[in-house]
Structures are given as C-alpha cells and as structure tokens.
C-alpha cells in the first residue's frame, strides 16, 4: 500500500499499477518479519518478537533487495535531472565509514542473543534474574500492590549492551556524552507521554477500588458497548485500537489501555478473546499511521515540519483499509471456528 501511494500520488504517471508490481517482494518482506516473530512469540514469549523478527527480517530482506530477488524487472524512480556541482547536490562520501559492518552490528546481535538466553526455561539465567524482586504493597492504604523483577526487564539487557558498546567501540567520554545527550533529546517527548500514560493505565485498570461499589472503568465500558454492538464487535475492535494509538501517540499505550476492555467485551459476548485481542493489537498498529506524535517525528527527520495534516490525510486511507481488513479476517476466522 505504501508503494502504491508513492507511485499514485508522487510518480510521474500517477499510477496505482506501477506500485502494485512490487507485491511479490512486499509479501516476501512481510513474511521475513512475521514468521520469525511468530516463532519467537510461540517458543520464547511475548517480550521481543518485534526485535528478533525485525533483525531476522533485515538480514533476509536487504540482501534479497540487493540481488533483485522478486523485485520488478523494470526499476521505478523519480524523474530528476542530475545537477552536478550545483548547490544542494549530494556530495559523494570521500572517506570510509569509521565502523565496519561487523562492529556496527555486534551490539544488536549481542542484544538478541542475551534476550533469548535469559528467556529460555532450560537455562539457569532466567531463574537467577527473576530471583531479585522489588515490590510495593498496599499502595496509599489500598489493597493494590505492584512488583517487578529489575534484572529480568528487557531494559536492563539494553543497558548492559550499551555498556558493552562503549568499550567495544572504544568510545571517548565526549562521544558517550554526545550519544547520551542526543538519545535523551530524541526520547524526552515519548518518555513524558508514556510516563503519564502508564499512571493513567494503572488508574484505569484498578478503578474497581472505589467507595461506590462500581466496577472498574474497562468493565463498565465493556458492559455499555456489549449492549449496543452485540456480536458485531469483531468489526469494531480494531478501530478501538486505532483510536487509542491516535489519541495517545503509542500502540503500546493503546494496548495497555484497552486490552482488558476488549477482553471483557469478548467474554460478555462469548467471542474468542484471543481473536479480539489480536484485532486490538492490529488496530493499534494501524493507528500508528495517523498518530500525531509519530507523524511529527517522521516529518522532522525528512524536513516536512508543518505538513503533518497533509501526511495524515494520505495515511488515513491505508489505516482504514488495514483496520477493516483485520476486522474481515477476524470475522472469517470466528465463522470458521
């Protein structure tokens, strides 16, 4: 869909058909990510299918693209005139990159290896890391409590790999400081948004602890929607996920916020909960296409600040098609069950 939008609205011939020619490679690229991610989710757990699926996908898709595997025989490109020597022309690289491909990839490969090793039950590392626990019971005098295993968190593995990369790449203190500063500037917006979102999610989920005897907010919403929509909820579920991403700026937040809600609706209407939760996740991913936070971030990278509304109008149609197709597949699967 992305390539078809490119050729239809920005190509010289304004053609949908030109973009459709890449369908074989697009299908191959999708499966290169999805199949490894599915295997990881099945055998290792839910923490990092996207990370390992993405790494495997890159390792498969980039060499395939370089060799022209499943790509159209006729290359497509923009009709631009070469402007050698003129201002704005791209200068060729005169010096080799400071890092070899092997050294550049080493931290990412180490990250994937450590994540896998610390999640396998047959190895002792998982039990060791999970043995350290931190908790908080009776928060603010309520029956609510929380806890975590800090050494088992994926973020702890990331920090360990960062330390490894500093020494492996022989970084100076100035380089480390510059890298941390640049990363902090990039993450500060998302950190503030997600930091506030997590608190809201916890209140949302634990709202059953109240003096009025009311159910939690997800339960109350589920009851309301179950009465109004009924068994046709399968058509609504992905759009709830999309709405959550659009409003909050994060598919993660959308899933945290609405998963319990979707699960409760599915139970009340006797629909398969795993299917409805899958539609929530797919819808949340689709909502990333029109998420203002993501669009602003992407616009700043490609120097299109101020064009966010234009970009969202373009991505609204594929977002709707993505969510609608997800609903259709969910509906057909439930009928098949």
Q: Can you offer a commentary on this structure?
A:
This protein has 337 residues and is mainly α. The chain contains 14 helices and two strands, in the order H-H-H-H-H-H-E-E-H-H-H-H-H-H-H-H. The protein has helices at 2-9, 16-20, 23-43, 49-66, 101-117, 125-130, 154-168, 173-205, 217-229, 237-248, 251-268, 273-287, 292-301, 308-336, and strands spanning 134-136, 146-148. A two-stranded antiparallel sheet has the order 1-2. Helix 10 (237-248) runs antiparallel to helix 11. It starts with a helix and ends with a helix.
List the defining traits of the structure above.
two-stranded antiparallel ribbon, 337 residues, 14 helices, 65% helix
State the total count of DSSP E strands.
2
- Listing every helix as H and every strand as E from the N terminus to the C terminus, the arrangement reads HHHHHHEEHHHHHHHH
The rough form would be described as globular
Q: Mind describing the biggest β-sheet?
A: 2 strands, antiparallel
Strand content: under 5%
User: Order of strands side by side in the largest beta sheet?
Assistant: 1-2
Put simply, the count of helices is: 14
Give the low-confidence spans. Answer: 81-94
Mean pLDDT: 85
Helix content: 55-70%
Radius of gyration: 24 Å
Structural class: mainly alpha
Q: Roughly how many Å apart are the termini? A: 30 Å
